[in-house]
Design brief:
Elements (H helix, E strand, L loop, with lengths): L10 H11 L7 E4 L7 E6 L5 E6 L12 H11 L9 E5 L9 E5 L9 H7 L2 H19 L17 H20 L4 H12 L8 E3 L8 E3 L5 E4 L6 E3 L1 H11 L23 H12 L6 H24 L10 H20 L3
Antiparallel strand pairs: 1-2, 2-3, 3-5, 4-5, 6-9, 7-8
């Protein structure tokens, strides 16, 4: 793309700075990358074909603590020497002579994320899908086996009360969204009360990704995870809550459509949830006797998140063009159904 088409960076300024941070040679080619939670993300390729990624917050007024580039960078920097695959951290910069906001640069990772069955069917052969599932859960087990103090992340967040804080936050979201969504469901309140009353004691805090699913991992065509992406909401917390989220997101054939109509892990060849659960337990030694609780909690939380998104569409705070609001609304109920079913197993 032409330098004039680059939004959020002055390419000439960045191209003068970049060789001081890492071994690159101009001229450079810029390409805007999609996604990234609205952060401005570009692929920069140097004259020798080396590829880097540069990332900054979106333009305009930002909410406090949103789009925290330092948070993302310090996590990948801390995890880079570990068994958790992340992009190579290159530099974090907070210098107004280079950019109006802080940004960071990292290495480009080869591979592809899993968004839909149609996409995965084309590039991940069936024999590699078992490897993909095993590598996926091994990566999460590796993350949850790291003491945050050992990688300089002990101040990433509070060490205690993770699920209790999540219950408070997302219940507040549900109740605040009711007038705009014009929808309430007694199960959301009943499940909140039950989950609060049955809250398990949290073990040692670990780095929790918060959205660890196949869509946030890069996979090679042989099935190995080459990098975990999007650490924006990662914090310290209860690893079992993080694990249960990932297990819920690992869709099997016949599951209801909370995670879309064409989930990749429902394709033939991927391991079952039970196989992943057993593998995680063997790798971490974790006591999974409360897994039904954590899965119920995550399904309830998903319902609250979807309810809030639906409310913003209904209130006109987000453009609903091209959005299937009926399907989105149905996913709220499906999530509550799943939460109630798993909560029933607690008795």
């Amino acid at each position: 793309m032409a330098p004039s088409d680059v939004v959020g960076f002055d390419p000439l300024v960045i191209e003068r700075w970049l060789p001081t941070a890492t071994e690159v040679t101009g001229p450079f080619h810029w390409e805007r990358l999609p996604g990234g939670h609205s952060n401005l993300t570009y692929l920069i390729t140097d004259a020798n074909g080396r590829e880097l990624v540069i990332r900054r917050p979106p333009q305009g007024e930002l909410l406090p603590k949103a789009h925290d580039m330092w948070r993302e960078y310090r996590i990948i920097d801390g995890l880079w020497p570990t068994a958790v695959p992340v992009a190579e951290p290159i530099a974090y910069v907070d210098d107004r002579q280079l950019c109006e906001v802080h940004f960071y640069a990292m290495g480009k990772v080869e591979g592809a994320a899993m968004y839909s069955g149609a996409e995965v069917r084309d590039w991940l052969p069936q024999p590699a899908r078992a490897t993909a599932g095993e590598s996926f859960i091994d990566t999460l087990a590796a993350l949850h086996s790291i003491d945050p103090t050992d990688v300089g992340l002990e101040e990433l967040g509070r060490h205690d009360g993770y699920v209790a804080r999540q219950l408070k936050t997302w219940y507040g979201s549900w109740t605040a969204s009711v007038p705009f969504a014009e929808h309430d469901d007694a199960r959301a309140h009943d499940l909140h009360d039950l989950l609060q009353a049955r809250l398990p004691e949290q073990g040692p805090a670990r780095v929790v990704h918060g959205d660890f699913g196949p869509h946030n991992c890069m996979f090679s065509t042989s099935g190995t995870v080459t990098a975990v992406l999007d650490w924006e909401i990662a914090t310290l917390g209860d690893p079992l809550a993080d694990f249960a989220y990932s297990i819920n997101a690992w869709i099997e054939p016949g599951d209801d459509g909370v995670y879309g109509a064409d989930p990749p892990t429902a394709l033939p060849g991927f391991p079952t949830r039970d196989a992943l659960i057993a593998r995680y337990a063997a790798a971490t030694g974790a006591d999974l006797s409360n897994l039904d609780y954590y899965r119920a909690f995550n399904s309830w939380k998903t319902a609250c998140i979807l309810h809030g998104v639906y409310a913003r569409y209904r209130a006109g705070q987000k453009s609903s063009e091209g959005v299937d609001l009926e399907s989105l609304f149905a996913r709220i109920g499906v999530s509550l159904d799943a939460a109630a079913e798993r909560a029933a197993a607690l008795d």
